[in-house]
Records
---
Amino acid sequence: MSNRCYVATRKGLFTIDRGASKWSVSHAAFVGDNVTLVMHDPRSGDLLAALNHGHFGIKLHRSRDGGETWPEIAVPAYPPMPEGYVPKPHPFTGKAIDWALKLIWGLAPGGPDEPGVVWCGTMPGGLFKSNDSGDSWELNRPLWDHPKRDDWGPNGAEHPGIHSICVDPRDSRHVSIGVSTGGVWITRDGGKSWVQTGGGMRADYFPPEQMHDPNVQDVHCLVQCRDNPEMFWVQHHNGIFRSTDGAASWTEITGVKPSVFGFPVAVHPKNPNIAWFVPSTKDEKRCPTDGRVVVNRTSDGGKSFETLRRGLPQEWAYDLVYRHGLDVDESGDRLAFGSTTGSVWISEDGGDSWQGVSSNLPPVYAVRFAKD
Amino acid sequence: MATVRFTQNIQRHVACPTRDASGSTLRAVLDDYFRENEKARGYVLDEQGRVRQHMVIFIDGELVRDRDGLSDPVAPNSMIDVIQALSGGSTSQ
């Protein structure tokens, strides 16, 4: 069970530790700086922190002493455009994708058999791989050069991006990624070739004839069950979807109260039928329904949901939880989530009850447990 | 030799002392400066060598016009100022 989690916020990276009686903030790094994502690598103990300095661009830092010191490391860089290449303007925006890093949106360690491998998803629409723990990065060209990549759409942000990276526990060359907006993509050969899935998903923001196109699906978050890797969950712009066949096809889960809209999803590492969601009212009303923060949990693969609220604010609360703002530890018992209003809650009983760690942190972008 | 000065705000992340650098265009002068301070390059220019969206550069008080190509001419005694724009602060709010 994890006794530590890291919280990446708009104004710093905070460490939260489990003490004798409660969880509390024990350390702060990058205070004042915009930390958009954090990753703990269970193979090496490395921590990676992604920063967006605005003026000075996107940076990556790595700590090898548990978060005490953070030397800057290489940042993924897009290559020069080939001579004579004219990028295709996107039909929505009329603008071509700029080959320059706008945001680090996904970080995932490679498998245990490939030490040093780290995957990094970016805006605009890039998947980078490092073979040396982040000292250097290379853009995955088979995906970047795929003709369908040109059609990935902007999401709530200005650029399409890759935010979810699931390395299959059975085979590290088998990687599944979630794209907003561009559906789900799978490689089984370490990134040499890619196939798109997403059949069964539904995009209400397109005309009926196009709403089932896998390439327009706005996947908010994609997760894979560790001990049953054929089972995936997606929190999508239009609802909740589940796959029982390795992300090949998807089934929509309907009738979820108080709503099916949200950004994050976490799946129990041992039991693929247990998953957690943090709902918001709907896409154009991104706050908890009736001002009550709740977590939705299914324990039967989506047939039914419990709305968990013990320990969470049940009046005048408007916390939004971003896609990386919810995490579950390796035991499946401990969960943590953080919100745009700077609140962090932790559960030690699978979500039955929650304790508040802070309600005064900066807006939270990512919460990640240290994993053994 | 032109002189290159940097905003104080960048110094927290990467030391950029005021220093002379040679070249007849902004690109040449900055390349000369960054040759001895490679880390600073990525704080001012993006990976395609363009001035970052929310950075501005002045040559003798005049705003640089060619932000992508950095072809603006530099005189032997020019003063170059690299400053963060007022835009772009939203990620710090």
Note: The longest strand of chain B covers residues 79-84.
---
Amino acid sequence: MMPDGLEPSLPSADFIAHITRAQRTLHAFILSIVRNAADADDVLQEANIVLWRKLDEYDSTREFMPWAMRIAQWQALALLKKKSRLRVTFDDELLALIAKEAIAESAETDPRRVALAGCLEKLTDWQRALIARRYEPGSSVNALAGERGISPKALSEMLRRIRRMLLSCIERTLAQGVRA
Amino acid sequence: MSGRPDELEELLNALVDADSPEAIEESELQLAEILRNDAAARRQYREFMELHSALMWDYAAAATNRSEKNVVSLEPYRTRWRRVLQWAAVIAVAGLAVALVFAGSRKSSHREVARVESVEGAVSWSNDAGGQRVGLSSGVGLAAGTLSVEGASSSAQLRFGDGTVLTLTGDAELGFSDDDQKRLALRRGAFTARVAHQPAGRPMVVRTNTAEIEVLGTVFALASEQNQTALNVESGNVRMRRLADGDAVEVSANRVAVASLDVGAAMETRLQSTPPGEWRWSFDEPPTAGSKGQWRPPSAGELGRVRSLPFVAGHSADGRLVVHHGVTVRAMLGEDSGLVALSGRSVLHVRFRTEVRTGLKLFLSCEGPGGTFGGNFELAIEPSSEMPDADGWMRVDVPMRPLHVLSPEHPSAEGERVRTLILHSYERDAGLELAEIGIGQEK
């Protein structure tokens, strides 16, 4: 038996391919709204369920990603409202602006991710190890700093430099791609 | 763009790295002010969050690149989790995702990953979820967590399901987990490991303050202090990476490497040293780092000496801490030869004085030739019938046989290298002062 609200309409192979390919973009988009990794994970799962429920509303002649992002946006805002975080810092208007611009430029995200893969290879071993450790589930800067016997501030500075290197590398890679 | 570019970058990094809700909210407030009226800043924010998200998905790719070079492969934990999540996108379709994703991961945090093989002294276990067990005994199963060994004379042996055995000696703290890949964090102290062959792509990874090592299957000893880590390999190969700059070296059998914060020198290995057959220290100069006691320099006819300090020797059956008073002498980290090699003809020479006439004990922690744990031993020094000199000093020479064996799996000290010595009185403070100690050969 299917859970409540999950009508067993059979998804097309295209729909499943769309929803699978969209996961990373949706996660990044949701993260920019909720600003918290655990919340973004939760919202992504909720959004996936809603996308499935709204399968019949999807117009296959239109782009999938903007439609999915709008649904993810609602889910993200619903979570923020539930957590009463909406008005504390990022207000409705700002979040709407962020979401609108992200949806308009959603086509840019895939090339950036491809570029990132090459840029990660350019990091030194210890930089990759640090990033790997930082992005493990449950990792925190304080805990990592403690492990390494350095201050959290010093560790944050290391991470800041690595992220700056990666962002610069992505820009250079995309610029070279355009020139080529 | 309004505001300094650096300010925006700092706020973005603070937003994702801050650990306290207050710090996050402070970053968000400042960030919101900038983003409201600045399209370029919003773009930078979006690109930064894309990177942050992508690294959550791709953190394993960062590590996997290294495995291609046969350097490291960290567990693709996040990737696996993400893969499940990705499937959840489709399974959301069936409405089962959340339960599937979380059911497994929650169970794993309580799963037994290692068993206590043997214990000497004060050994306890704890984990992040508030779990704690003190006074551990042999046969106890442990979930992932932190094992703490208190006191230079304490030790503990852990056995993992695949037969890998770790032996912690002296004051040591080791975090451990085994969720398809063994991950250890040696926060202080030393351990030796006999590592069963690890699955391809999932080496055992050990981190210290200054180094990270990867092991596929070998025997080695690792000791860590705040500023350096020493690795001594008995068999197989271990890769050691210095965290300060990422420089790495392969350490093969019978070789030693040290990773410190000094990035001026290249990481290199050297052959294990041969230990001397005789050794003697006096205390006109301060004792080496790692030694313990209150040093008193020579003055006006008084010898340089070290006065005893209290140390935790273990727990009694009722859980009470057992405290002895003694002087600890330890070979320097990276001195792989230890202090001296023991033989059947070894003799202890010691010059000491006490405020009361009492017997003493000498505790010895030894290593095998490859730096691995060689057993703990004890020698009783009975109260001498000889009179002390005018300043109260006594000089005694005690044949080191028979030694009382404290680690049954290491029944003989012959050929072992002494890493740590503790000369101590029993539970009372006898005001022990040590002016000279050495181990020689019977003539």
Note: The radius of gyration of chain B is 27 Å.
